[in-house]
Amino acid sequence: GGRIAGRISAATSTSGFDDPAWSGAAIVLIPEGRDRLQHYREAQADQYGRFDLTGIAPGRYTFTGYLDQPPCDIYDEADLPACRATGMTVDVAAGSLQELQLRIKPIAIR
Asked: Which long-range contacts (CB under 8 A, 24 or more apart) does 65-70 make?
């Protein structure tokens, strides 16, 4: 499978280099075509906001993270737009390695 590694932080600056790391943040990889639960991936960032997800099945995913409460219901397809609003879409190929900076955008209170 593929691999995604990187760092999670709040999107507070325009450059992305001064964003504070989200120590202990939850990282969630949500597969499109939610019929296969085994393709969901979750991880926890280390003290520096670094994460590493391995063995990811090829396909398209919504990639997001959070500190206390998830920005959406990750298992409810109707809530997927809320997940995308805070994270990003990522395509994973077999055997690929992607280094990503996951900068979480602020969300509006519902």
From this structure: 65/8, 65/22, 65/25, 65/26, 65/27, 65/28, 65/102, 65/104, 66/25, 66/26, 66/28, 66/104, 67/22, 67/24, 67/25, 67/26, 70/26, 70/28
- Alpha helix segments (H runs only) across 1-110: 80-86
Which amino acid, 57? Answer: A
pLDDT over threshold 60, residue 86: yes
pLDDT at 79 over 90: no
| Tokens matching residue 98 | 């992607």
Q: Which residues pair with 31 in a beta bridge?
A: 61
Count Cβ atoms below 10 Å from residue 44 Cβ, excluding itself. 12
- The answer to pTM > 0.90 is no
Contact between 51 and 87 under an 8 Å Cβ cutoff? The reply is no
pLDDT tens profile 9-28: 987 766 555 678 899 999 99
